[in-house]
Give the backbone structure.
Amino acid sequence: MKLAVSEVFYSIQGEGKTTGYPSVFVRLGGCNLMCGGMGTQFNNELHNGATWRCDTIEVWMKAQSKNITDILGDEEHTALTNGANMIITGGEPLMQQNGVELFIDYLKNLYPNPCTLTPFDFAYNTNAFNCSGFVRVHLLSFLPLAPIAMYLYSSHSFFQ
């Protein structure tokens, strides 16, 4: 199984319940919201009445397909062995739910550490995804902007 992966890095978590913890971040590619409006990915401008723009769009649009066993490098494996948390973020991780579940299973066979999944738009995506897979995740961490974004974009025709 493969995942569209934009970047992988080791750092200190800077937000949420696990702030301050050493963490390995896997940023997945793709997002169905296109915060900033359709077209923002081409010219960095706001479109369709958007009032803010995704700050990681240029990163997650450069995703490459990787086998789940090839996503992490030596530095990330070492960090997880030494107790770092795993943070799976995006883009929108729920767009690749089956692969994410397999990746988490793969990690849990190697490391006992907690895994955090940070879907941006859980409310929008739960109709399309099977939530039973979340039993594999230690913590679901939601961005506080997600409900605001859905409110802002709910009146725009490109989301209806």
